Amino acid sequence: MNPITLEQARTIIAGVINEGRQQGFAPLSVVILDGGGHVKAFEREDGASNLRFEIAHAKAYGALGMGVGSRALMARAEAQPSFIAAVTAAFGGALIPVPGGVLIVDSQQAIVGAVGVTGDASDNDEAAAVAGIEAAGFDARTG
Questions:
Q1: 42 - beta bridge partners?
Q2: Domain boundaries, the chain
Q3: pLDDT per position as a tens digit, 121-130
Q4: Residue 1 confidence (pLDDT) above 80
Q5: Per-residue pLDDT band at 36 (split at 50, 70, 90)
Q6: How would DSSP label each residue in 47-104?
Q7: Which residues lie below 8 Å from residue 99, measured CB to CB, with a gap of 6+?
Q8: pLDDT computed for residue 143 by the predictor
Q9: Partners of 32 in the beta sheet?
Q10: Contact in structure between 40 and 33 (CB atoms under 8 Å)
Q11: Are 14 and 133 in contact (CB under 8 A)?
Q12: Is the CATH code 3.30.450.150 the one for domain 6-141?
């Protein structure tokens, strides 16, 4: 497993922003975390609201910490709300269980990081994250 590089993180962000613009999404904010949960890169499009970093980070951080995309965390929150509430508290609030937090998977199927996207509907955030990850040559894991 190789760590995600800054160049790869920037490629993912460019892919996310490009997808959002092509689809006519609202201004997006994108955070890339490395495999250890550290911020590798972040961008907020003009017009995005001020708390978008925290939202994007919590989507990615929760996905990475639990080893599943935030769409799967949403399903778990619906089935086990007390568990997700407890995990969110354990993560210091950095878990938002809605689509938009997607794992970055390398060619050996190892998780090398996560992307968090926010700004539009959660399903659109997730679609943009997947497009960005794939633009950088990685696989995306949403579930």
A1: 31
A2: 6-141
A3: 999 999 999 9
A4: no
A5: very high
A6: T--TTHHHHHHHHHHHHHHHTS-HHHHHHHHHH-HHHHHHHHHHTTT----SS-EEEE
A7: 69, 70, 71, 74, 122, 123, 125, 126, 142
A8: 86
A9: 41, 115
A10: yes
A11: no
A12: yes
